[in-house]
Amino acid sequence: MLDSSFAYQKLKTRETYAGLLKKWSTPLQKIVSADISVVYVPVVDNGHWWCVAFALKDQKIWFIDSMYTNPASEHSGDVKKLIAAVEYVLHWRDTQYNAALVWKLKQMHTWPLDSISFPDYNDNHACGIVMLMAIQESARAFTKTMQV
Fold this sequence. Notes:
Shape: globular
Number of strands: 4
Order of helices and strands: HHEEEHHEH
CATH architecture: 2-Layer Sandwich
Largest sheet: 4 strands, mixed
Structural class: alpha+beta
Distance between the termini: 28 Å
Strand order of the largest sheet: 1-2-3-4
CATH superfamily: Ubiquitin-related
């Protein structure tokens, strides 16, 4: 999961890709895109938390947003910017570490979009907690128990 400041820097300050790499590629050090299942990018916008999850192996983009019934439509402009930024970071990391397969730019924009559905609730202040719980639940799919 990337820090929410990654999205803020790209969406609010119009940070360059080079600037994003310098600040935010550290969590991905020595990791190539082929070893990543999902990249979670949490976003806070005017006090509202939501997340876009890039499922690299499934080639699908998921929205985690408890406020909107159609988050893909609501956040389409932001997601286009985040797609380009995440792809650039993945491509650069793969190139730096001489990965066998280097992430190809401009492929995510063709991926299908989907969203996690949430029950209706009247609390407009718990979006961050709901988002984190949804991320935690979806991340559980990547854990497994091993017999030793």
